[in-house]
Amino acid sequence: MYRKFNQKETKEKDVIITIKRLGINGEGIGYYRKKIIFIPGALPEEVVVAKINKEYPHYIEAELVRIKEKSPDRVAYPKRVDPAIGGLELAHLSYDKQLEFKRDNVLEALKKYHPRGFSKYKVKKTIPAPDAWHYRNKAQYQIERDHGKTKLGLFAPNSHQLYDLPVMPTQSVATQKTERQIKELAERLHVTIADPYRHTDGLKTIVVRQAQATKEIQVTLITVGHKIKNLLELSSEIMKLPNVVSVYQNETDWRNPQVWGNKTEKLAGKNQIIDEILGKQFALSPRAFFQLNPVQTATLYSKALKFLDLTPEDTLIDAYSGVGTLGILAADQVKQVIGIETIGEAVADANHNVELNHLKNANYIQGSVEKVLPELEQNGVPIDALIVDPPRTGLAKRLIKTLLKVKPKTFVYISCNPSTLAQDLVLLSEAYNVRLIENVDMLPQTPRCECVVKLTLR
Ligand SMILES: C[S@@+](CC[C@H](N)C(=O)[O-])C[C@H]1O[C@@H](n2cnc3c(N)ncnc32)[C@H](O)[C@@H]1O
């Protein structure tokens, strides 16, 4: 939480700040010489000593040095974890206050963009996760060799410094254990590790995902380049680890700023792992999106389905459908489901999942929602009910325009970003009433929110 050990003290830049509130990323916010100052790790009402790192025309970035007056909501930070690692931005705040913070984030975004009638929206209390630790079912760790020592872990935010991770307290025990076993195997088999400084080929990232219901584990080895020394031997050894049923290679290159590249190839075992939500089965390929907290996923999806108020005559559009989770869960209640998703592997998984669950009334289409939804309408498909679950960027303006024309009678918006949600509601509230917003805490210890919104035609 405090100053990084290798940073030099520059006393003259240390300032004393009273923290007023938390920012959307969980940082403490105060004021210094009439400018807003962001101090990660500081809490509201605390008086802290901070070191100014960077000053911009409208704000200042600083680092927490010492707490002079402590908040009663401060809790002990997890032991043996470097605070420089991302993903634990709220771990120093009591869990009750984390839940309040997530609700406040939604209220603040509504206040900022003020969609029609926003002050009357019912924004319910955040639903807590039954377990605020060890909930993440997928680990995506980088691997590097540094002065003859292999490091496996996460980068500090906005940095190229890799932290070797003996423990990550939000990650499930099994995924972490498998990650470290793979690291040991890679060392023992002398698998070439990619070098980010010299841009050489090799193993770069190890992804481990576990299905909660079946315990099956899928491993993806992300490599720079295709032919990596001893990768196939590594894959055979990984298959012998407990619960591992599937090993893939995903290939990237140094020009790609994303972690994942475009080519994915199976090295050993099954094509997919199978998970279960609310009694339905879902096969998952390595690239397919799946929520990270399986227990809360069931809560989130139950809310979404309840908010939809479906009837047996409805055609439901599952937009941004991933592996078809929401549409498949709703299929028994409607006449037909049409899903739309850009990633080909996820669409293939979704259609496979339709068969896996013995459904005859659901079909998933590859394409962007902005393009496919107007085409469906033009082809005379009745769009009675709609569920949208977009990425953080929210809905494209072009899509909102189509929705305001098509006007599905019942509509649920699942959002992982209150800011884009509030902006989209400004436009959608021209035709829709916002009945209810409910936050489900999918990612405890982080500032991330996930909310479900019930919209009905005016
Ligand atoms: C937040 S995930 C939701 C997935 C799914 N509803 C679930 O709960 O598992 C968003 C999904 O939208 C897909 N996606 C992103 N942009 C899209 C677009 N313009 N049109 C269709 N799908 C898109 C992503 O590939 C991803 O699978």
From TrEMBL:
Residues binding S-adenosyl-L-methionine: Q291, Y320, E341, D389
Source organism, top-level taxon: Bacteria
Active-site residues per Swiss-Prot or TrEMBL entry: C416 (nucleophile), C416
A GO MF label: methyltransferase activity
EC number: 2.1.1.190
InterPro entries xref list: MeTrfase_TrmA_AS (IPR030390), NA-bd_OB-fold (IPR012340), SAM-dependent_MTases_sf (IPR029063), TRAM_dom (IPR002792), U5_MeTrfase_fam (IPR010280)
Record-linked CDD domains: AdoMet_MTases
Residue ranges constituting the TRAM domain according to the UniProt record: 8-66
Keyword Repeat among record annotations: no
Pfam families xrefs: TRAM, tRNA_U5-meth_tr
Keywords of this entry: Methyltransferase, S-adenosyl-L-methionine, Transferase
PROSITE patterns per record: SAM_MT_RNA_M5U, TRAM, TRMA_1
GO annotation terms (biological process): methylation
Record-stated family: Belongs to the class I-like SAM-binding methyltransferase superfamily. RNA M5U methyltransferase family.
NCBIfam families assigned to the protein according to its UniProt record, in alphabetical order: rumA (TIGR00479)
Protein name: 23S rRNA (Uracil(1939)-C(5))-methyltransferase RlmD
Organism from which the protein derives: Lactobacillus panisapium
Classification lineage: Bacteria, Bacillati, Bacillota, Bacilli, Lactobacillales
Gene: rlmD
